[in-house]
Every structure is written in structure tokens, then in C-alpha cells.
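Sequence only, no structure available. Ideas?
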Amino acid sequence: HSAPAGLKNAIDYLYTEWNNKAVGFVSHGVEGGVRAVAQLRQTVTAVRMACVSTQVALSAFTNFEVAEPTDPGTIAPGPRHEPTLVAMLDELIAWSGAFQALRTPAGAAG
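Reply:
I predicted one. C-alpha cells follow.
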């Protein structure tokens, strides 16, 4: 129910590099990784990132194919995930453009 420690460490370590950027989430897990994303939303907000609202949540039960018990499996998103992914990417593009002015130092060429 949490984000991987390596990801949290990367967010903390690269604090200033994340400032004034937009972020979207694609998650997976038994419940689609939604609890980990809820925690990550708080974390990235603390490093001055803006979360887009659309999220792609893949379920371990319905969006993975496992041929053999020892096989790690293959991600297999359903057709309903594509429009959600497109919507999330559209939001990211729009928000990233809006934040461009904050990332460009005053007086610098864009």
C-alpha cells in the first residue's frame, strides 16, 4: 500500500529537479496501486509538483497474463485503459505548458 522506497528516495534526492513540473501516474497492484498513488500525490505535492487528476490503474487480477507459475507475467492492459492514458497525457501536456513560465528564469530566452 505504499510507493517503492527507491522511488521515494529519488523524489527526495532530486528535490529541486522536480519543482514546478506536472506528474501523472500509471500504477499496478491488487487494487490497481491506488493507495500507493494516493501517498505519492502527497509526496510530490511537497516537492512542488502538480498532479493531474487522471490515473491509469492496472489490476493484478485483470491486467496481467501469467503463462507459468514461475513466470513474472506480462502486462496486458484492457482496451478501456487507452482512452484513460490519452486523457492523462493530454492533461500532462497542458499542465507542463502552464508551468513552463515558472521553470524559465526571468529574462532568459525560452
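The two ends are 41 Å apart (CA to CA).
Hope that gets you unstuck.
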